[in-house]
Amino acid sequence: QKLLLLPGDGIGPEVTAAAAKIAELVAPDIEIGEALVGGASIDQHGVPLTDEVLAQAKASDAVLLGAVGGPKWADAERTKRPEMGLLNLRKGLDVFANLRPAYCFEALVDASTLKRNVVEGLDLMIVRELTSGVYFGEPRGIDSDDKGVRRGYDMSIYTAPEIERVARVAFEIARGRDGRVCSVEKSNVMESGLFWRNEVTALHKAHGDGVELSHMLADACAMELVRQPKQFDVILADNLFGDILSDTAAMLTGSIGMLPSASLGIEGTPGLFEPVHGSAPDIAGQGLANPCAAILSMEMALRWSLARPDAADRVMKAVAHALKAGARTRDLGGDLSTGAMTDAIIDQL
Amino acid sequence: QKLLLLPGDGIGPEVTAAAAKIAELVAPDIEIGEALVGGASIDQHGVPLTDEVLAQAKASDAVLLGAVGGPKWADAERTKRPEMGLLNLRKGLDVFANLRPAYCFEALVDASTLKRNVVEGLDLMIVRELTSGVYFGEPRGIDSDDKGVRRGYDMSIYTAPEIERVARVAFEIARGRDGRVCSVEKSNVMESGLFWRNEVTALHKAHGDGVELSHMLADACAMELVRQPKQFDVILADNLFGDILSDTAAMLTGSIGMLPSASLGIEGTPGLFEPVHGSAPDIAGQGLANPCAAILSMEMALRWSLARPDAADRVMKAVAHALKAGARTRDLGGDLSTGAMTDAIIDQL
Ligand SMILES: CC(C)[C@H](C(=O)O)[C@@H](O)C(=O)O
Ligand SMILES: CC(C)[C@H](C(=O)O)[C@@H](O)C(=O)O
């Protein structure tokens, strides 16, 4: 099995190194490679993702990405921005289903800004469409209309097959959980939202055995995530709503530094695994970053793409035990460095 | 001064009646009319907003709308849906700046699902663009492409003048508060977001005296609203992000039943005032609705469109005192009916 590390920018290299260290311990037979993405790739090659690196990613079983972006590249033209490396990678690997679990480790319940009873035992999964919608729709641009009025625009668009394939993943995941999918859109104001809702409903009629489907408007969902997050099992959302709602859900659990994600394509193609957090340039290189999100992304890689559920279980338990034993990085109110936190987890393997 | 009531559907009639009762007491000289909107208008006239009612709204100084929508009309074609009444009214009145304050009444701090220290003293204002963006962009529709693939799409578009006029309102409002505006978009993935960001930045350079401008991505903002909401003073957002973020902000304060909104156009045109909550069909007609959001929307109408800041102050104080004295509807954990809650507020006028 081959794993490709793409450390990227900011705290990316620190946290992927921590995750790699753990992978080497629990699955020493996995072959680990490394390459550039994001700002690091721009500095070296002038583009945020080279064709060679994309080919290398496609030839792997799993890709672990750290984070991309930083002030250094923020004002460059779009094709020269670190984020484009990530978008091109997602599109290139065709990883259309982005799985973002939000669970609250018992030891961290009090790190949440929400009250204990609201988040204790929280365990929801957001399934976000990742390769379409307003992120990629055409036409898009900044120009002037025929009266000379300047404008910026993007097409928010979904086709039936794009909705169907991600909805199937949500149904499948729900079957392995509590069997409930809540599909989110703005069907009251967007045609693409109405289309999304109708397609998901039709698919559920045909292939929804064992799954209870409900629908919620995106604004209501944002509210319910704060009001009563434990009502949800699986949330299915498009690229844009999934982006926003998963950040809200992540924050419920106390620290964005804890949450992993998996992006999956069709069977037999490599998955892309990344922490939900960003490159955090303000703390980069100081050993302050929480490595848990990257380590748990590695856990998802072991489970979903590297066929090593046993190793994944070991990692998950070690993280829970380390937290229970009091190990905390700064974002969790403690003072362990990235390395010390990693060692605390290794001690529990 | 003329005020038009548009009670609408669900709990709309109950809560607007409560607000009207209070307006009659604090500003008896205001002439109050009433008309149909939403499902109520569909049932009577076949459309969610008639030309006559729009003309009547335009000829008023302020419009107070209850809420629109309900299961009865949910599956109708788009032009026959209650929400279109609201969208047509917003567009028809050209109320481009939607002001959504989120403040936490001291007496209600514990009603929030967030911890006391996170929300106590919270006082932020969301300025949401309300008449453009993906809500109205063209082309939009559901059809098949030239290969026969079915799809749904909407154009997310902003012109420079549309951004400029709402940003000016945000700057002006910030000057009367703490002087800080945080503009929110997804400039890292959307051209319209990058355009928004650049236009707001340019406008700030030219007309931003006394205002500190910052920028935040919409996903990060959703997270920060849960992590540390008191960091914000004024949040400026487009129609779609403003919709979602204001619902999150509303929920921080404990109950969506408390929060009002004002939608303003250019000077001298009528403002539209509505509770942030929806029509809540499940509790309609039972006297269970919290009238505070409608009463506080009336407060905003008195302040922003009816030139009666004195009367507005009286209403605001009466609501705070009634809450302090323990008056609570069911959503706040109490058992007062809509009418009893209204009377509790009247007692404090
Ligand atoms: C970095 C950015 C392009 C990305 C996104 O918007 O998808 C990030 O926010 C995420 O959620 O992975
Ligand atoms: C009812 C609906 C069309 C509306 C919107 O999306 O603008 C509502 O959610 C709001 O925020 O006022």
From TrEMBL, chains A, B:
Task: Copy the pathway line from the protein's UniProt record.
Answer: Amino-acid biosynthesis; L-leucine biosynthesis; L-leucine from 3-methyl-2-oxobutanoate: step 3/4
Q: Encoded by which gene? A: leuB
Q: Where in the cell is it found?
A: Cytoplasm
Family annotation (PANTHER family): 3-ISOPROPYLMALATE DEHYDROGENASE
Its recorded reaction(s) are: (2R,3S)-3-isopropylmalate + NAD(+) = 4-methyl-2-oxopentanoate + CO2 + NADH
Q: What is its EC number?
A: 1.1.1.85
Binding locations of substrate:
90, 100, 128, 219
Q: Which residues bind NAD(+)?
A: 70-83, 278-290
**Cofactor details (free text):** Binds 1 Mg(2+) or Mn(2+) ion per subunit.
Function per UniProt: Catalyzes the oxidation of 3-carboxy-2-hydroxy-4-methylpentanoate (3-isopropylmalate) to 3-carboxy-4-methyl-2-oxopentanoate. The product decarboxylates to 4-methyl-2 oxopentanoate.
Chief subcellular site?
A: cytoplasm
Q: What is this protein called?
A: 3-isopropylmalate dehydrogenase
The superkingdom of the source organism is Bacteria
| Source species taxonomy | Bacteria, Pseudomonadati, Pseudomonadota, Alphaproteobacteria, Hyphomonadales
Question: Taking every annotated instance into account, which residue ranges of this chain make up the domain Isopropylmalate dehydrogenase-like?
Answer: 2-345
